[in-house]
Amino acid sequence: MSQATKRKHVVKEVMGDYVIPTQQQQIVRVLGTPGNNLHEVETAKGERFLVSMPTKFRKNIWIKRGDFLIVDPIEEGDKVKAEISFILYKDHIRHLIKEGAW
């Protein structure tokens, strides 16, 4: 699969799908990006930790400070405690508020 085709499918998946987080997943806000595809995030309770970006998002989707994410926890992680599973945009947030999951 070419890079352009891969990018098209990843962007379509991120922009088109509306997901609701499961019991294990959390909604977090991005505080910064220290580098190496890691992002510092904060939960609703105020807990701060690092999350990793999966390979499929790298060089295809950009995340900036203030964005909201859905993350899956990683049990064996000390510093990096979760992995990004979904990136929330304004339409996704409106859908979550309407569903009562925000």
TrEMBL record:
Which InterPro entries does the entry mention? EIF1AD, NA-bd_OB-fold, RNA-binding_domain_S1_IF1, TIF_eIF-1A
Domain of life according to the entry:
Eukaryota
Residues in domain S1-like? Answer: 5-89
Record's keyword terms, sorted: Initiation factor, Protein biosynthesis, RNA-binding
Q: Is the RNA-binding keyword given for this protein?
A: yes
Q: Which family does it belong to?
A: Belongs to the EIF1AD family.
Protein name as annotated? Probable RNA-binding protein EIF1AD
This protein's encoding gene: Eif1ad
